[in-house]
Amino acid sequence: MNSNDPQGILKFLTRRHGGKKADISDIISYIFLILGTVLMFGPVLWLFLSSFKPLEGIYEFPPTLLPYKSETVQIPGYDQPLPLYDVKMADGSIRRMAQISQVGIGARMIDPNAPDEKPLDINIDQRIPVKSVYFELENYTGAVTNFPFMTYLGNTVFVTVMATLITLLINSMAAFALSKYKFRGRDAIFVLIISTLMVPVSVILIPAFLVLTKVGWTNNLWGLIIPGAATPTGVFLLRQYMLTIPDDLLQSARIDGASEWRIYSQIILPLTGPALAVLAIFSVMWRWNDFLWPLIAVSHSELFTLQVGLNAFQGELNQQWNYILAMTVLTLLPITIVFALLEKYITTGIATTGMK
Amino acid sequence: MAGSNSDNHFKLSTDLLLRPFTWLLGLADYILNPLQRLIGLKRMAYVFILPNLLVFGIFILLPMLLNFYYSFTAGNSILLENRDFVGMENLNRLFTCDNFTQPNSCREDLFWRAAGNTVVFVVGQVVFIVLISLITALALNRRIRGRGFFRAMFFYPVLLSPVVVALIWKWILQYQYGLLNSFLVSLGIDKVPWLLNANLAQFWVIAVSIWAHMGFFMLILLAGLQAIPHELYEASSMDGANAWQSFRNITWPLLMPTTTVVLILALIRAVQVFDQVYVLTGGGPGTATLYMVQYIYRTGFEFRNYGLAAAASLVLAVVLLVLTIGQLALSRNQDAA
Question: Which of chain B's residues have a Cβ under 8 Å away from the Cβ of A152?
Answer without folding.
Answer: none
